[in-house]
Amino acid sequence: MKNTLFSTVKELKGNPRVCVYTEPLWGLSMNLCMPYLSVYMLAIGLSDTRIGFIVTVNTLMQMLFSFFSGPITDKMGRRKATAFFDVVAWCIPSLIWWRAEGFWFFLIAAILNGTNGITTNSWHCLLVEDAEKKQITKVYSLIMICGQLSAIFAPISAVLIHRFTLIPAIRILFINAFILMLIKVVILYLTSKETGTGKIRITETKGKNIFQLAGGYGDVIKIILKSRGMVFAIVIAALGWIVGMINNTFWQILVNKKLLVPENILPLFNVFRSVLAIIFLFFVIPRFLKGILKVPFLLTFISYFIGQLLLILIPVDSSIKYPLILVSLVFEGFGLGALFMLCESVIAIHVDPNERARIMAIRYMFIMMVSAPFGWIGGFLSDISRNLPFILNMIILMIGIAVILLYYRRENDHSAEKA
Q1: Do residues 234 and 363 make contact, with C-beta atoms less than 8 angstroms apart?
Q2: What letters, b where the CB count within 10 A reaches 16 and e where it falls short, cover 256-270?
Q3: Can you give the pLDDT at residue 174?
Q4: How many CB atoms are located within 10 Å of the residue 325 CB?
Q5: Would you state the pLDDT for residue 333?
């Protein structure tokens, strides 16, 4: 059992244990409904372009709040910031999505949801600041797995959609999301403690406002630029975020509207995707985490590329349409799981622990800034052809492969095993 994810679950202590143990509530709340948000908006009457515009607004808001996430996380503390902004970013928008009747409902929810630019930063600090470095990669694997546990309950979504049709079923799922997410917030707040670094930063930032603290970002950017590993991880994460954002927004639309897969079957594909991610994270990906990570990064981008290519080549009237969709999800499942874990782990290993909150804030802000236009671009392309957003993804993935090859011309070792 040594050095396995199973043993890591038992060995976790303190905040890492609390964060991992409460994460399944995320999968059982937001992961049950967010994959269907785009088809939900489509069913209510929004066009692909408007859906893409809302995604862009959401990304811009995440960028704005990411800018202030470092100072806010330092002043409030990791624990309080996570609790407060989880309510603002997820619980309140869930209620708005539940009663949504048109464009403005979704726009307001997207703006509020953008505050997750803060809670993403604060929660990651809460997760890793008191963790042992050698555990970080495995901790992120466990987080991915916990988020995918919603797969067990995804057939409920299929039954609800079949019985009540899409819109009433998704409304039920958003009420469920509100309740379970609120429970997660309360449990995490009551059972966690402020991190050691968090206590220091609360003291150091006392009497300073967030604008004064944000003014120190110039020095933080210099710290980032001095670390070749951090620059690489941020660029790769930005490319991965764009691909994931486009895929998550338009996958359901393509499969439902172009490939004519019934709405009540869509949740079953999420079951398959989640089960794959869990299998890959437990039994496959850990084998690639020793030594230089050039091969895992390349395999991740190539796998994602093949999955996107297969998806757009599937013929609508083919008798093997469904098997081909499943095959494309096999490649996507590996790419999605590995990319998240690799990027988060490399950042966590290279980050200056004394400036973690502000460095992570810069990282998220850069990712949001770069990816923001692609929501609208994807929607515009999807209105022309359902295939075009995924062709765009393939181009971005090829850029990612080029960046990896260029970076690893020097043999830098990012092995978490040697951290």
Answers
A1: yes
A2: bebbebebbebbbbb
A3: 97
A4: 19
A5: 78
3: region left, alpha or beta (phi > 0 left; psi from -120 to 50 alpha): left
- Which CATH number do you get for residue 403? 1.20.1250.20
Indicate whether 292 pLDDT > 70: no
Residue ranges making up the domain that contains 135: 12-418
Closest CA to 61 of 364, 379, 343, 396: 364
Per the CB < 8 A criterion, the answer to whether 196 and 353 are in contact is no
Specify the pLDDT at position 346: 72
Amino acid at 140: Y
pLDDT of 103 reads 97
Domain count, the chain: 1
Q: Tokens 């622990």 identify what position?
A: 353
Whether the CB-CB separation of 34 and 173 falls below 8 Å is answered with: no
By the 10 Å C-beta count (0-12 exposed, 13-18 middle, 19+ buried), 190 is classed as: exposed
- For residue range 35-68, list pLDDT tens digits in order: 889 999 999 999 999 999 999 999 999 989 988 8
